[in-house]
Amino acid sequence: MDLMEKITSLAKRRGFIFPGSEIYGGIQGFWDYGPLGVELKNNIKHEWWRTMVYNRNDVVGIDASIIMNPEVWKASGHLDSFTDPLVECKVCHQRVRADNKEAIEEHKESHKDEIIEWTESKLFNLMTEVFLGVTEPKQKAYLRGEITQGVFVNFQNIVYSTRIKIPFGIAQIGKAFRNEITPGNFTFRSREFEQMELEYFIKPEEKEVERVFEYWKEQRMNWYVGLGIKKVNLRFREHAVSEKAHYARKAEDIEYKSSFGWKEFEGVHYRGDWDLSRHKLIYKDPKTGEEYTPWVIETSGGVDRSLLFFLIDAYSEDKDRKILKLHPKLSPYKLAVFPLLANNKKLVEKARKIFAELRRNFYVAWDDRGNIGKRYFSQDEIGTPWCVTIDFQTLDDNTVTVRDRDTTRQERVSVDNLENYFHNKLVG
Ligand code: GAP
């Protein structure tokens, strides 16, 4: 089994990610997050929001709607230019992204020795159409292809309601939809996915662009490293002119070295005044009265893609132990509580009490099945950083065993100090 197969299988078996609408044969490019997946996803989003909004004075958040007036997409250039090149195999009529070398190669291999030909490359728009209203003709609208435009169209509302001054940023997390030609590599390229984005507005000055661009590159790289992604698996890659999106004057990706090659984690883009000028929006400096169209540096990451890469990077095996070495801040459960024996009333009662106290502040798993070794293995596989065992000594001295996922070391900790102990580990 290769690494991706192991991850896909673990994700399904343990309730992280399921194929969308599976009982009806699935639907390509759509995925459902299970009980552990939704926790991991929420933790990623929470960490992003904490870093990008709560810990800063110059960023505010919004949550714009998914469907917008279609004029937005005309103005932003998405209806004309948000496209991917597509070719069709003349033998079996399967369509593949012309710029996706892997998919082209894979397709050739699927025909074995047969010589295949491709049609001319054509551009296909990625926007997903929806139809609103109940009577004909229905109003055509679009599911947003990037969450970004919701920020730009609210630019004035945000400036007026918050009095925030340039330079400042607007952060948002939300769903985006793209009619991807070749969804694949598990959730890596989906048709429905979540983005976490910052649009950072600056004065239109060349020297600022360079400084702010480099600043955000570093901030975003540090975020992934701080949450445990191994440095050797990360790099920056600048986009060639032909790769850049229609709005980008400069674009660099943070890439992850996955088992299917170096792949985009997140994009840092300099969008200039593309969007605000297309929406005819300006900024008025409250002190000087100067009016101008701000320039924008954007950081745009995928929640699903991050989740996938966090899983891949955290996965390890040690003899017959499978371990997800997720950063504790991301782990679905922070702790698991076990009574040493499930059939000892006193142990179970004490363990239940400790479980109830801990779960007031942490998401805690309870397990009383099988033996302790099996319970450890089961928690290791889903990334639970610490397991707390209530044993006979607990009944004597009110201490428990805390076992660390990564080192497997165990220590005795007083029940009275347990909450602080985990709090310090998670914050520190
Ligand atoms: N607002 C800019 C923007 O949308 P992008 O490079 O097209 O830029 C940003 O997308 C991020 O969104 C990507 O780095 C990736 O993490 C995520 N993303 C884009 N398309 C995706 C897809 N089809 N499936 C999953 N994630 C995707």
UniProtKB/TrEMBL annotation:
<dbReference type="GO" id="GO:1990742">
    <property type="term" value="C:microvesicle"/>
</dbReference>
<dbReference type="InterPro" id="IPR002314">
    <property type="entry name" value="aa-tRNA-synt_IIb"/>
</dbReference>
<keyword id="KW-0963">Cytoplasm</keyword>
<keyword id="KW-0067">ATP-binding</keyword>
<keyword id="KW-0030">Aminoacyl-tRNA synthetase</keyword>
<dbReference type="InterPro" id="IPR033731">
    <property type="entry name" value="GlyRS-like_core"/>
</dbReference>
<dbReference type="InterPro" id="IPR027031">
    <property type="entry name" value="Gly-tRNA_synthase/POLG2"/>
</dbReference>
<dbReference type="Pfam" id="PF00587">
    <property type="entry name" value="tRNA-synt_2b"/>
</dbReference>
<dbReference type="GO" id="GO:0005524">
    <property type="term" value="F:ATP binding"/>
</dbReference>
<keyword id="KW-0436">Ligase</keyword>
<dbReference type="GO" id="GO:0004820">
    <property type="term" value="F:glycine-tRNA ligase activity"/>
</dbReference>
<keyword id="KW-0547">Nucleotide-binding</keyword>
<dbReference type="GO" id="GO:0070062">
    <property type="term" value="C:extracellular exosome"/>
</dbReference>
<keyword id="KW-0648">Protein biosynthesis</keyword>
<dbReference type="InterPro" id="IPR002315">
    <property type="entry name" value="tRNA-synt_gly"/>
</dbReference>
<dbReference type="InterPro" id="IPR004154">
    <property type="entry name" value="Anticodon-bd"/>
</dbReference>
<dbReference type="InterPro" id="IPR006195">
    <property type="entry name" value="aa-tRNA-synth_II"/>
</dbReference>
<dbReference type="InterPro" id="IPR036621">
    <property type="entry name" value="Anticodon-bd_dom_sf"/>
</dbReference>
<dbReference type="GO" id="GO:0004081">
    <property type="term" value="F:bis(5'-nucleosyl)-tetraphosphatase (asymmetrical) activity"/>
</dbReference>
<protein>
    <recommendedName>
        <fullName>glycine--tRNA ligase</fullName>
        <ecNumber>6.1.1.14</ecNumber>
    </recommendedName>
</protein>
<dbReference type="InterPro" id="IPR045864">
    <property type="entry name" value="aa-tRNA-synth_II/BPL/LPL"/>
</dbReference>
<comment type="similarity">
    <text>Belongs to the class-II aminoacyl-tRNA synthetase family.</text>
</comment>
<feature type="domain" description="Aminoacyl-transfer RNA synthetases class-II family profile">
    <location>
        <begin position="2"/>
        <end position="332"/>
    </location>
</feature>
<dbReference type="GO" id="GO:0005737">
    <property type="term" value="C:cytoplasm"/>
</dbReference>
<dbReference type="GO" id="GO:0015966">
    <property type="term" value="P:diadenosine tetraphosphate biosynthetic process"/>
</dbReference>
<dbReference type="GO" id="GO:0006426">
    <property type="term" value="P:glycyl-tRNA aminoacylation"/>
</dbReference>
<dbReference type="Pfam" id="PF03129">
    <property type="entry name" value="HGTP_anticodon"/>
</dbReference>
